TrEMBL record:
GO terms for biological process: DNA replication, synthesis of primer. Its cofactor is Zn(2+). The gene is dnaG. Its EC number is 2.7.7.101. Residues 444-475 are annotated as: Disordered. NCBIfam families: dnaG. RNA polymerase that catalyzes the synthesis of short RNA molecules used as primers for DNA polymerase during DNA replication. Monomer. Interacts with DnaB. CDD domains: TOPRIM_DnaG_primases (cd03364). The keyword Oxidoreductase does not apply. One of its GO terms (molecular function) is zinc ion binding. Pfam families: DnaB_bind, DnaG_DnaB_bind, DNAG_N, Toprim_4, Zn_ribbon_DnaG. This is DNA primase.
Length: 625
């Protein structure tokens, strides 16, 4: 059993471990005046800092939860270690050789606490792997790195190494260094075989995973020979010192920059972290074989809290089609109330940061992060992109789909802002209309039982003219008018000669357009002779049963006319349709202009603008007639 550490040595450890430095490894501290420092308490959840550190007295205290003590107590609490293990950990970092009381005398000894032993085993393992990377057997490993743009200095900087193919290469080395098989297995560096320990990582490239204070607690390992057993990436299993729920690869290197820039970039893999750091994004970290979770967020939040109480940015990088992860991030960010601090950077062409750097250079990686979008903007735009915003129906359908996302934003001010943005992104150009629609969704969410439960959306108005030619809203006066014109063209082609001056775009729904095209295909109403043959001909030309049925219906539905059914009436109806069609074109063009950025797409902007001017001109001429 471990003896008692000499009191003098404990005192020396305290003296050589300045509390501000040690605490500063785990959370961001800022000056609180009066010689003390402040940060977010790592021991309870809080939004504003009540965790105080007084360097002059070597103490910390949290006014929120009452946790407090000296530097040793801090390590005990944050690492979950015993007193002896904490002193050993601190001693290790400040280069103090401890002496223990044993049977009256003091000895330096080898039977330290378990944590320290496991960390030393990892330090030794990392040294071994790094040496092996230079051996002839590691040729494939070196090629893997070279192909991804990493040189020898880069590998050394990140501590990358090579685990040889044998079964006892590392195990043998650790045995020689005095570690027992049990220790090697507990560390997760070896598995338990029938004849003792055998190497966990074989013929793999290995990355050391460090705690925030730089201690190596595990490895991530990539397969080099596709024919070998096991997954492409293999990580250290959960051990007494490897807790993947809170570990972030690269955090030991990134933490100062994360605090300075108030931003953390979450990437997928070890090589992505390397590529980002080398390309000038030193705030990149990656989870180790698990998805981003609550404990990762806590660790980052403590780093992000810098000079003010405003939380920093967490940027998630995605390739183009990672829909599942996007949804997961959104759900997670909303649940933990940091959605408004969450950003998304979408990798162009689905390239990860490592590939991006390889193909397009360092600046492309920096651009990736610079082009990040707020999570809400990203989610909303992804949804509305699925609609055809060049039509009024598409914009309305897009509004319905996106209004629900906006309605899910809890902060009133942020929600309002996104309502304004949504109007702009859709090009509806009626802010109060969009805000009302959002408010309806908010109310529906409240009725359905608030934030936690699935939102009951207001019944979406089916966009008129779904392609199945199903029923549309016949109460819509402009649709009634179009239908009236079609009936006229089918039943009384002789009255409706100006029908042929319209075009398919004059009709606002697909069913109507289809009938117009059918009529054109038969040579227009001017080609109509006998009324019965005319209808029969249209039905013959109809491409499917649904359209044939619709034409038949138009042929038998009575005309609703208040007054005389004559050429004058026909002219009035057709003229109005023409005017409405022009108005629709004007609205669509204006909407497109509203969505265009004139400085980014000057040619497109000019083109749409010219088209708008010409349509406005047509409209004036129509009116004058
Ligand atoms: Zn606290």
């Amino acid at each position: 059993m471990a003896g008692r550490i000499r009191d003098e040595d404990v005192a020396l450890v305290r003296e050589r471990s300045p509390i501000a430095d040690v605490v500063g490894e785990y959370l961001q501290l800022r000056n609180a005046g009066g010689g003390s420092l402040k940060g977010l308490c790592p021991f309870h959840d809080e939004k504003s800092p009540s965790f105080n550190v007084t360097p002059a007295r070597g103490l910390y205290y949290c006014f929120g939860c009452g946790e407090g003590g000296d530097v040793i107590r801090f390590i005990q609490q944050i690492e979950g270690l015993s007193f002896v293990e904490s002193v050993e950990s601190l001693a290790q970092q400040s280069g103090i050789r401890l002496r223990y009381e044993q049977g009256g005398g003091y000895t330096a000894r080898n039977d330290q606490g378990q944590r320290q032993r496991l960390i030393e085993a990892h330090r030794e393992a990392q040294r071994f792997y790094a040496e092996q990377l230079l051996s002839p057997a590691a040729k494939e490993g070196r090629r893997f790195l070279t192909e991804r743009g990493f040189g020898r200095a880069d590998a050394e900087h990140f501590g990358v190494g090579y685990a040889p193919a044998g079964w006892e290469a590392l195990t043998g080395r650790l045995r020689d260094a005095g570690f027992s098989d049990q220790e090697i297995i507990t560390a997760g560096l070896a598995g338990q075989g029938r004849r003792g320990a055998y190497d966990k990582f074989r013929n793999r490239l290995v990355w050391p995973v460090r705690e925030v204070n730089g201690e190596i607690v595990g490895f991530g390992a990539r397969k080099l020979d596709p024919d070998d057993d096991g997954p492409k990436y293999l990580n250290t299993p959960e051990t007494p010192i490897f807790k993947k729920g809170h570990l972030l690869y690269g955090l030991d290197l990134a933490k100062r920059e994360i605090a300075r820039e108030r931003r953390a970039v979450i990437v997928e893999g070890y090589t992505d972290v390397m590529a980002c750091h080398l390309a000038g994004v030193p705030t990149a970290v990656a989870t180790c074989g698990t998805s981003f979770g609550e404990d990762h967020l806590k660790v980052l939040r403590r780093m992000l809290l810098g000079r003010s109480n405003q939380g920093g940015e967490v940027v998630f990088t995605f390739d183009g089609d990672a829909a599942g992860r996007r949804a997961a991030v959104r759900a997670f960010a909303e649940e933990h109330g940091f959605a408004s601090e969450t950003f998304v950077a979408v990798q162009p062409d689905g390239l990860d940061p490592c590939e991006l750097r390889q193909r397009h250079g360092d600046s492309s990686v920096r651009d990736l992060v610079a082009d990040r979008k707020p999570l809400y903007e990203f989610m909303i735009r992804t949804v509305i992109e699925q609609y055809d915003l060049d039509t009024a129906e598409g914009r309305m359908a897009g509004l319905d789909a996106a209004a629900d996302i906006v309605a899910s934003i809890r902060n009133d001010g942020v929600r309002k802002l996104y309502g304004v943005n949504l109007d702009h992104w859709l090009g509806i150009m009626d802010e109060s209309f969009v805000q009302r629609r959002v408010a309806q969704h908010v109310a529906a969410r409240r009725r359905s039982g608030g934030a936690g439960s699935a939102p009951a959306r207001p019944a979406p108005q089916a966009p008129p003219g779904a392609a199945d030619a199903g029923p549309y809203d016949v109460r819509d006066p402009s649709l009634q008018r179009e239908r009236q014109a079609l009936k006229m063209a089918v039943q009384y082609p002789g009255l409706a000669s100006e029908f042929d001056d319209l075009d398919a775009e004059s009709f606002s729904v697909p069913q109507h357009r289809a009938v117009y095209e059918l009529i054109s295909a038969r040579g227009g109403v001017r080609a109509a002779g006998d009324a019965r043959e005319w209808v029969a001909g249209l039905c013959d030309t109809a491409p499917d049963e649904a359209q044939r049925a619709f034409v038949t219906r138009l042929a038998v539905e009575p005309m609703e006319v208040y007054g005389e059914l004559d050429e004058h009436y026909a002219q009035e109806i057709l003229g109005t349709i023409k005017i409405h069609s022009i108005n629709r074109r004007v609205a669509n063009l204006k909407s497109r202009l509203g969505r265009l950025d004139p400085s980014a797409q000057p040619d497109e902007y000019q083109r749409i603008f010219a088209e708008l001017m010409s349509v406005e001109q047509q409209k004036r001429m129509m009116r004058e007639r």
